[in-house]
């Protein structure tokens, strides 16, 4: 699963990307187009349930769930026509599972704004318009092909034609496909097109150092806009987070206390991105490692097991599952088993967030 960071130039994408991934590869400089090649990084998803598990099961290693993050260079007006580095950005966005759009809500006369003034809603609209136009182009190309197949009696193509027309009408009213309700067969009919406005999106409001909770009216506007268009919102001061990320643990705690944050905002963003991607975690817990594994909400136990190793999905026999509450009550897996609380679940079981499990696999 991967998320792509997008945003206009100079909104703080690279600063945020670097802080999130602690990668030195992405440049951060005060001029447009400083990031040309997309950079990839890994973000771990902090989860305090890991710590709670390790109070009872002491492992050699603790491994949180992780996400891949791609820093996609600054999109500009006209990208759909190949303006700026247009087409390249768009093809990168097509490949990600979710979009994280950084919008500038901080004022700083030293940092140039490409459109001249700080207006996050205008920034959101600029990017959304490009993505809407690009999706319309994709659908236009697909429509001709689907119509030809439909004429020769292909039933699936007939469905595709009708879904494409439905999507087009929605896009023409300047609405992202995210807000169009399609049934599973309809979604499936167009799933291979990589439609960008259908992807889940998280707006990251890059706020001022003295507005960490995002009380500024501009941030409120972003929240209202997101509520209408099916997006999530998280606040961060990228510059401050970049500084916090570089500190050692003791200094970090002190700095967080100074600025009045309970934890780095990066943690919140990582969790929000995870949620935006439709992911939850189950845990495996043993002496070697206690580890969180991401799975798509609604996955069956074999599908969730397949996250550990693709073989596990096909060779799945059953899962033995208990909860963190059981662990906290009975203190060990042995006692959970003795109390008859270790559940055996079969192939149809829908994995639940927070399940702690063993999978029994055919050799
Ligand atoms: P990008 O073009 O979107 O990748 O933007 P960068 O991350 O390169 O940031 C552009 C400039 O804005 C740099 O000079 C950053 O130091 C500055 N910047 C980024 N985030 C913040 C912030 O939260 N507050 C302030 N004041 N400046 C920031």
TrEMBL record:
Regions that span the bilayer: none
What GO molecular functions are on record for this protein? Answer: ATP binding; ATP hydrolysis activity; GTP binding; metal ion binding; ribosomal large subunit binding
Positions annotated to bind ATP: 10-15
Instruction: Extract the InterPro entries matched here.
Output: ATPase_YchF/OLA1, Beta-grasp_dom_sf, G_OBG, GTP-bd, P-loop_NTPase, TGS, TGS-like, TGS-like_dom_sf
Would you tell me the Gene Ontology cellular component terms? Answer: cytoplasm
Instruction: State the PROSITE patterns in the record.
Output: G_OBG, TGS
Which protein are we looking at? Ribosome-binding ATPase YchF
The protein's organism comes out as Neorhodopirellula pilleata
- Coding gene? ychF
């Amino acid at each position: 699963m991967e998320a792509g960071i997008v945003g206009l130039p100079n909104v703080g994408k690279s600063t945020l990307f670097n802080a999130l991934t602690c990668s030195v590869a992405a440049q951060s400089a005060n001029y447009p187009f400083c990031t040309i090649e997309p950079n990839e990084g890994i973000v771990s998803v902090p989860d305090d349930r890991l710590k709670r598990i390790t109070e009872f099961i002491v492992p050699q290693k603790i491994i949180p769930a992780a996400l891949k993050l791609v820093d996609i260079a600054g999109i500009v007006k006209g990208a759909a026509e190949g303006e700026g580095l247009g087409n390249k950005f768009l093809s990168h966005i097509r490949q990600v599972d979710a979009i994280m759009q950084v919008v500038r809500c901080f004022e700083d006369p030293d940092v140039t704004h490409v459109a001249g003034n700080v207006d996050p809603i205008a920034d959101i609209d600029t990017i959304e318009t490009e993505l809407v136009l690009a999706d319309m182009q994709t659908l236009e190309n697909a429509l001709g092909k689907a119509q030809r197949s439909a004429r020769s009696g292909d039933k699936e193509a007939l469905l595709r034609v009708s879904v494409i027309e439905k999507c087009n009408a929605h896009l023409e009213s300047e609405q992202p496909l995210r807000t169009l309700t399609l049934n599973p067969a309809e979604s499936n009919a167009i799933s291979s097109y990589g439609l960008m406005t259908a992807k889940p999106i998280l707006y990251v409001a890059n706020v001022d150092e003295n507005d960490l909770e995002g009380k500024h009216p501009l941030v409120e506007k972003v929240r209202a806009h997101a509520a209408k268009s099916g997006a999530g919102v998280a606040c961060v001061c990228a510059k401050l987070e970049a500084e916090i990320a570089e500190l050692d643990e003791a200094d970090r705690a002190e700095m967080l206390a100074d600025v009045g944050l309970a934890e780095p905002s990066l943690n919140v963003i990582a969790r929000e991105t995870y949620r935006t991607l439709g992911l939850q975690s189950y845990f495996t817990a043993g002496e070697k490692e206690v580890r969180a594994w991401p799975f798509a909400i609604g996955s069956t136990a074999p599908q969730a097991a397949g996250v550990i190793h693709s073989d596990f999905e096909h060779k799945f026999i059953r899962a033995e599952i208990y909860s963190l509450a059981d662990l906290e009550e009975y203190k060990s897996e042995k006692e959970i088993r003795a109390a008859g609380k270790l559940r055996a679940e079969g192939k149809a079981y829908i994995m639940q967030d927070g399940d702690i499990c063993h999978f029994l696999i055919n050799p």
